[in-house]
UniProtKB/TrEMBL annotation, chains A, B:
Domain tRNA-guanine(15) transglycosylase-like: 12-364
Name of the featured protein: Queuine tRNA-ribosyltransferase
Residues engaged in binding substrate: D90, S91, G92, G93, F94, D144, Q186, G213
Record note on cofactor: Binds 1 zinc ion per subunit.
Region (RNA binding) location: 244-250, 268-272
Catalytic residues identified in the record: D90 (proton acceptor), D263 (nucleophile)
Assigned protein family: Belongs to the queuine tRNA-ribosyltransferase family.
Catalysed reaction equations from the record: 7-aminomethyl-7-carbaguanine + guanosine(34) in tRNA = 7-aminomethyl-7-carbaguanosine(34) in tRNA + guanine
Organism of provenance: Deinococcus hopiensis KR-140
One Pfam family per UniProt: TGT
Pathway terms, separated by semicolons: tRNA modification; tRNA-queuosine biosynthesis
Cofactor(s) needed: Zn(2+)
Taxonomic classification: Bacteria, Thermotogati, Deinococcota, Deinococci, Deinococcales
Described function: Catalyzes the base-exchange of a guanine (G) residue with the queuine precursor 7-aminomethyl-7-deazaguanine (PreQ1) at position 34 (anticodon wobble position) in tRNAs with GU(N) anticodons (tRNA-Asp, -Asn, -His and -Tyr). Catalysis occurs through a double-displacement mechanism. The nucleophile active site attacks the C1' of nucleotide 34 to detach the guanine base from the RNA, forming a covalent enzyme-RNA intermediate. The proton acceptor active site deprotonates the incoming PreQ1, allowing a nucleophilic attack on the C1' of the ribose to form the product.
InterPro entries in the record: TGT, TGT-like_sf, tRNA_ribo_trans-like
Length: 383, 383
């Protein structure tokens, strides 16, 4: 179980299979986020249709509502949500920081007031593992602190050290053999602190490693060197998961640097706001031009929305505030990211990944390829 | 084209096929409402999956936004909405009354201010037909006035006479051979006025007739005798459409009285509010009991929601305000009404419709069958 087999490698980029109790998935891959036990507006059948492989669910949300015991009574997340494939749950740490009120961090864990009813809740490494075991995902995450950006170096250092002690307690608390617990490397954008976190975390030899503490507001010029440093030190034969990253250009740069797994609410959220992802950048269907365009969002896309609808129809749905609009744009955007990762995988199979990624970037950025993207590709290619 | 063939008859109730340019449908049937060119939250593929046969669209809404010319540029409603089957458009008259501001009715037609932008719009019999021809539905409706309930008899009489003059103008204006225009019988709940409307309307010998002016707030004790009077006078070999009716008990009573077609926003609207239709009445998924129930809405239902989800999961989605909740409850409710009409058709095939309908009513009303329902079944059965 949890075997990770690299099928192709080109520079740092790799294509691999990752075996989980609910199925074997192929990386690089984007994982849709089903915060409250549903990818917003999308059915499990549609997730299967568009090629989703692992679905995320949020420990913080599900422990507060409906409570992890109800999910366990359904046999875990697949029974509860009707998505039959693998799941990944986060630890709840990140949401406590972003959604909990009056939160207080101690060595023991975090206490906070629920954003739903203001009740006082405690989340500790042990409690996070207990909830994640009840939810029953295939991959579970160590309870960590994700500090904000910017943060003082001293705070970052104390936090990353505590996160390592919490990791140890998570592993101690863990009882299920059919769940892989991934450790999370922290350290913000500081090379020195990343190195410290890596030195303290790698000895735990968890079956996979996440890169945390990034995509929290820092510039990409700082984020991707931190990714590069981390993937350069992580063990080659274990999956690497860059948390909270979902913009197309960030996925390509991440794959170039050797990342295998990504997740983000971005494709569904931007879809609900009326935006569609394409190789030519983000299409704004709230603007006036699409209202008269009789072509699909993307004639090269095989999603239901692109096979069925014109831009004019979808723009009409948005103006009419029809539920089908966020549904169809979310579906298209998820399919776009799944196809993007499949295309990256195809290029890796053919040994043409860096050429393909360069060409993709030139079209996406309309010839104005930013330096951070160029640099990520060069670092990944070993230039 | 537009052949209506009665396959079985039992008392007044009948099962028939109705041929349209976009396909042959089987009656009795319920038609989902796609007001703005989409059945709220439901994809065309899902409509096909659950057995929808004809989809309604609203002339008033589509002429105001996006404008009928954009729909025509897509080749009409099937190209615009991606639903490949037959459509029916209403005339716009009803919505002008319920949504238009500052409306003024004259012999010429109706002027009103758009509920979207306040602009002054005129709708006449000729304009209604023009818009409906651009939308391209298989069945189009005569431009009529649907008076409120209650209304003065004198007003009702003048209105129904004007509606007949408008019918004549609609037929005059109509140019497309591939669209069937249905006349609408008015007259409120007055037997005398219904008779007058019938006497004036029947000579036009349109390919189908609608029963209008009902389900606008009158008690069922007044509504169903008006239905019974009308179906008793309509020609046998043409389809009969009871407008705006969609409660399960009203469909059964209507079928008993010889109605073939129904439409209503009820199943999707009540679904968005968290209610599910079942043979045992309406299930309120907002209440606390379903939150712990691990069974489906209806174990006898074959819809995606019932095959995939527990009541507890759906109740969680409602509390979490997740889009999948209204989507799944709308889907279930539409499927429930389609199955209800298919079951009525099966009973008609077996010559057991009135027995089946009586048993259905006893379960649905929990033994307390209302007199109006009982009376409708008796009238339909010829007792």
């Amino acid at each position: 179980m949890f075997e990770f087999d690299i099928l192709q490698q080109e520079g740092r980029a790799r294509r691999a299979t990752f075996r989980t109790p609910h199925g074997t998935v192929t990386t690089p891959m984007f994982m849709p986020v089903g915060t409250q036990g549903t990818v917003k507006g999308i059915s499990p059948q549609e997730l299967l249709d568009i090629g989703s492989q692992i679905v995320l669910a949020n420990t913080y949300h599900l422990m507060l509502r409906p409570g992890e015991q109800l999910v366990a009574a359904h046999g875990g997340l697949p029974g509860f949500t009707a998505y039959p494939g693998p799941f990944l749950t986060d630890s709840g740490g990140f949401q406590v920081m972003s959604l909990g009120h009056m939160r207080k961090i101690t060595e023991q864990g975090v206490t906070f007031k629920s954003h739903l009813d203001g009740s006082r809740v405690e989340l500790t490494p042990e409690r996070s593992v207990e909830v994640q075991e009840a939810l029953g995902a295939d991959v579970i995450m160590a309870f960590d602190e994700c500090p904000p950006y910017p943060a003082e170096p001293l705070y970052l250092q104390r936090s990353l050290e505590r996160t390592v002690r919490w990791l140890e307690r998570c592993l101690e608390a863990k009882t299920r053999e059919d769940q892989a617990l991934f450790a999370i490397v922290q350290g913000g954008t500081s090379g020195e602190l990343r190195e410290q976190s890596l030195a303290l975390t790698l000895p735990f030899a968890t079956p996979g490693f996440a890169i945390g503490g990034l995509a929290v507001g820092e510039p990409k010029e700082e984020m991707f060197p931190a990714v590069a440093l981390t993937t350069g030190r992580l063990p080659a034969h274990k999956p690497r998961y860059l948390m909270g990253v979902g913009h197309p250009e960030d996925l390509i740069a991440g794959v170039a640097l050797g990342v295998d797994m990504f997740d983000c609410v971005y494709p569904t959220r931007t879809g609900r706001f009326g935006y569609a992802l394409t190789d030519d950048g983000r299409l704004n269907l709230n603007s006036s031009a699409p209202r008269r365009q009789l072509e699909p969002i993307d004639s090269g896309c095989d999603c239901y929305a692109c096979r069925s609808y014109t831009r004019a129809y979808l723009a009409h749905l948005i103006r009419a505030e029809e539920m089908l609009a966020p549904r169809m744009l979310s579906l298209h955007n998820l399919r776009y990211l799944h196809r993007l990762m499949a295309r990256a995988g195809d290029a890796l199979q053919q040994g043409t990944f860096f050429n393909w990624a360069t060409a993709w970037g030139e079209r996406y950025f309309r010839q104005e390829v930013p330096a951070w993207f160029q640099k990520a590709l060069e670092t990944g290619a070993g230039i």
